[in-house]
Amino acid sequence: MNLDNLRIISWAGLLILIWLSIQSWQQMFQPQAPAALPATTALSADPGAVPTAAASNGVPALPGAAAPVAQPATPAAQSAAAPARLISVHTGVLDVEIDLNGGDLSAARLPTYPVHKDQPDVPLQLLNSQPDAFFVIQSGLRAADQQPEPNHLTEYTAAGTEFVLADGADELVVPLQWQSPIPGLSIEKVFRFHRNSFRIDLEYTVHNQGSVPYRAAKYVQLQRHYVPPERSMFDVESYSYYGPVIYDGSKYEKLDVEDLAGKPATQSVENGWLAAIQHHFLAAAVPLAAEPWTYEARFAEGRFLISAIGPLQTVAPGASASFKTQLFVGPKMQEQLAAIAPGLDLTVDYGAFALLAQPLFWIIQKIHGFVGNWGLAIIICTLLIKLVFYKLSETSGRSMARMRQMQPRMKALQERYKDDKQALSTAMMDLYKKEKINPAAGCLPMLVQIPFFMAFYWVLLESVEMRQAPFMLWITDLSSRDPYFVLPLLMGVAMWFQQKLNPPPPDPVQAKMMQAMPILMTGMFAFFPAGLVLYWLTNSVLSIAQQWRINKVLGAN
User: Fold this and answer.
1) 3-class SS at 139?
2) How many C-beta neighbours within 10 Å does residue 46 have?
3) Backbone phi and psi for residue 517, each to the nearest 5 degrees, phi listed first
4) Conformational region of residue 63, where left means phi above 0, alpha means psi within -120 to 50, and beta covers everything else
């Protein structure tokens, strides 16, 4: 191996880190469309491939029934609908409005999650009935045999206009009644809310005291106004995925909204769910497992709609039956999501680094449980990572220290063979071999740190637990950039000191590039989340301490 190859190896780690940083940087500047639906996906773009799930009035068709494909209700149609008749529900973590015209979840605010940290009394609103921010969850029953049905276009009644979770109670039940024109048939729609939870249980109970069977299928759908997000280097939310997603029991997919226009996609699913997600938050519908449901996704007039309709159930005369679905409206709390349905925690999208980011978040979360500060948890986690790779870093550090000791001899060889690069390369390799120095060892710690760096990046970006999490002093949100750029500047200084402890590259051009690297990296990190800069700063300080000790020990010898 000649000297040029060794230089390439020693620079490989740094170049990869720079490249990955640039990729992340570009995410802030370049608009990115939602991930396209793969051609091999189980969803079919041909509505005739499986029974369609939509009728012309926006109510899903019964399973097995052909019906014209509908588009989501337009803003104009929405404004022409009957005036809202609202009841309010308060659980402590959810403030919900239910519109009795359809029994829809038409608004949901999260009082424990303010929009901005400096406005704690302004809660984030996820569901919204306003046309320019329209996002609702609709549900109902579809009846066979042209029987009357309580779908999301019918009217309900309730015993009150406000429901509040009582002190000491774990559950809040909100029943809605539908006045059936069929003698002996009564149907109740019930929402169940839970203390300190964003899960909502939805159940239709059918009591058939009539003389004929009642056949119906449960459906649920999410409809949302959609505007393609604009990317901004100052807004981390702008480059997190925003749109509809589905899970078919084994595969998680982000749907390309614009591809759904005039070309709805349908699929028969068991053990799946559907959701509309945004940065840190989502609304999801989880149909009962082990039942065949028909999913559909479509887009028109600035809105996307994803729906699921279940199998027909028959309620015999004199019998009763329940039609159940679970909903989730709130932050992407990984433990709550995983407890509701398999794969629902995949909406916390760590990308290609999920295998490392998920256990990394678990470790940070456990540390946070002891120290109560996410910034301290990041510092301690960085220390643990450093301890795990201590021997590797020590071996590399010793090699770098030995190379520093060899600097006078290396400079002498450069002077001797300044006109013969091949001879210089051979002489350098002989020197390395004689002194048992591995010049490529210095890049190993950097190569190890790259996946941890990217995993930390996605953990800080996607984990709602990090949202608006304070550290100390001026760092009041670890998921956004340092407002005064102090941490990036400290990191740049630390990188400069770290360079001074290591031998400079023998090539003058490479040496100048190395000297400029702290400035370049400081500029890149200036707009990264403060928690990520804190991680890299901590890692650099620990590396400085380790290399200083190694240099001192070898110098004493």
Assistant:
1) strand
2) 10
3) -60, -45
4) beta
Alpha-carbon gap, residue 289 to 270, rounded angstroms: 6
Is 72 buried (19+), middle (13-18) or exposed (0-12) by CB count in 10 A? buried
pLDDT of residue 70: 46
Of residues 105 and 532, more confidence is placed in 105
Rounded distance between C-alpha atoms, residue 479 and residue 481, angstroms: 7
pLDDT one-digit tens code per residue, 272-296:
899 999 888 999 999 987 888 999 9
Distance of alpha carbon 356 from alpha carbon 364, whole angstroms: 12
CA distance 101 to 104: 7
Assigned CATH for 31-349: 2.70.98.90
Fill in the amino acid letter for 392: L
Task: Please say if the pLDDT value at position 46 is more than 60.
Answer: no
Q: Please, what is the Cα angle at 27 between 29 and 234, to 5 degrees?
A: 60
Tokens 């769910």 correspond to what residue? 273
E strand or H helix that includes residue 140: strand 135-143
Q: What does the angle CA 264 – CA 268 – CA 269 come to, to the nearest 5 degrees?
A: 115
Ranges of CATH 2.70.98.90 domains, the chain: 31-349
- Cβ burial of 448 (10 Å; 0-12, 13-18, 19+) is middle
Q: Label the pairing between strands 86-90 and 162-164.
A: parallel
Question: Scanning the structure block, which residue is given the tokens 């039940």?
Answer: 173
Task: Kindly list the distances between the CA atom of residue 152 and the CA atoms of 178, 203, 218, in Å, as whole numbers in the listed order.
Answer: 11, 14, 11
Query: Has residue 463 got a pLDDT over 60?
Result: yes
Place of tokens 């003389």: 211
Q: Quick one: DSSP state of residue 323?
A: E
Q: Which residues are CB-contacts of 349 (< 8 A; sequence separation ≥ 6)?
A: 240, 241, 462
Tokens of 276: 């509309």
Residues facing 192 on adjacent strands: 173, 201
- β partners of residue 294: 268, 309
- What share of the chain in percent tops pLDDT 70? 73
